[in-house]
Amino acid sequence: MKHTDIVKIFKDKAFVGQSVTVCGWVRTSRDSKNVAFVELNDGTSLKHLQIVVDKTVFAGRNDFLPLGTALKVVGTVVESANNGVEIQASEIVVLGDCPADYPLQKKRHTMEYLRSIPHLRVRTNTFNAMLRVRSVLSDAIHRYFQNNNYVYVHTPIITGSDCEGAGEIFHVTIHDFNHKCKTAEEYAETDFFGRKAGLTVSGQLEGEVAAMAMGKIYTFGPTFRAENSNTTRHAAEFWQIEPEVAFAELPDIIEIAEELIKFIIDTVLKECPDEIKFFEDRFEAGLREKLQKVVDSKFQVLDYTDAIDILKKSGVEFKYPVEWGCDLQTEHERYITETVFNKPVFVINYPKDIKSFYMKQNADGKTVAATDLLVPGIGEIIGCSEREADTEKLLEAMRVRGMNEDDYVSYLALRRFGTVPHSGFGLGLERILLYITGLGNIRDVQLFPRTVGDLKV
Ligand code: 4AD
Ligand code: MG
């Protein structure tokens, strides 16, 4: 169907005076005696295109007015004081009508209600803006890495190892619900792969393999966690960006992470001004200024041990008590980023016992060369570390955690054949999207969220 994207008509003044064909869905409409107005949206812009309908030309017709109706409109582009441009309709074709029980009405619906209709909520302004920012953000992430000599690799979705060692793997099986076997081993051996398999929690381990040949790689794909965390920041399926960089130590990877975050936020600010303004008006006052400050400021680097000191001296009664060795809870992370520094903070050198097996052990014997990037309002958006390059130390860390060495044969082999210092991180796409849009719940930055106890098709 030959037609013009609505965004083009808004952007290019050369359309004024021309006849165009546009397609879209009715977002609002007003009817009066001599003239009707229809606001049409085709998804290419946040702003709707106003169609002006002369009732003397379209006498007796009102089939194009109901909300949600799909239209094809032919008309002339004219300048308009309020809208920049609008269309004087000469022909209207109803492509798909929409009955009165359409679940989206003119009023502002709650986010909770919209979550109950994921197949329709994409037609709201909020989801129009979110999906465009998500798309531009994803493109900016690729641009950053492609411009800096990284190779995009696709790591497997089905895997036999648990990267984070937290036992949050979704099992992959073809066995029937009543499959009978005497032992767990037999269950695995008679399954599709002849061994236990699951959905990946992270592409890191395979990413390291690629980095040991290609030097600088990144992954960008879905990861899965059967985490029983019913929060506004956790999803069972989320997208992760995981660069892995050979010859990089912790300070090098911190620099890369900071540069990436600034580049992608700057790109969204430049390429999605209407969407950011929309989110600022509707969801977070001062959003643009907050984001601009992130682009312009230097991120804080804070040793974990100093973070514990700050928390202990704060005089705040935290729900989870603070002691050296404890994992930082959201309340602690928020105190540090919001109350103390009011900007992104890299907390470095965590106690080794609360972190993953692959992290490089520091000379003090107690901590690892790892960092989490914490941001105000969200908490952790990046988990990062230098990797342990010493086979013996790696094996010891695995033994302490009761891990099965046989599942990590190729990972361990990397340490034997030309091992080098290397580092990487995982950035949660939805977490940074929450930060950029000011939306408060991870369920509202995904098309079809998957969270514990909730999977809508
Ligand atoms: O800190 P995590 O667990 O780190 C890793 O998976 C490393 N293997 C990454 C690496 O070094 N290559 O997860 C990384 C990021 C978190 O900082 C967070 O932004 C996001 O992934 N994340 C989640 N996002 C949404 N829902 C969840 N359940 C998430 N779990 C982690
Ligand atoms: Mg983490």
- Strand ordering within the main sheet: 6-9-10-15-14-13-12-11
* Unique bound compounds: 4-amino-1,4-dioxobutan-2-aminium adenosine-5'-monophosphate, magnesium ion
The total count of strands amounts to 17
Question: Mean of residue pLDDT?
Answer: 96
Q: What's the oligomerization state?
A: single chain
Number of helices: 14
Q: What is the SS-derived class?
A: alpha+beta
The termini sit apart by 29 Å
Principal-axis shape equals elongated
The CATH first-level class of the largest domain comes to Alpha Beta
How does CATH name the architecture of the largest domain?
Answer: 2-Layer Sandwich
Share in β-strands: 15-25%
Rounded Rg: 26 Å
CATH level-4 homologous superfamily of the largest domain:
Bira Bifunctional Protein, Domain 2
**Uncertain segments:** none
Largest sheet: 8 strands, mixed
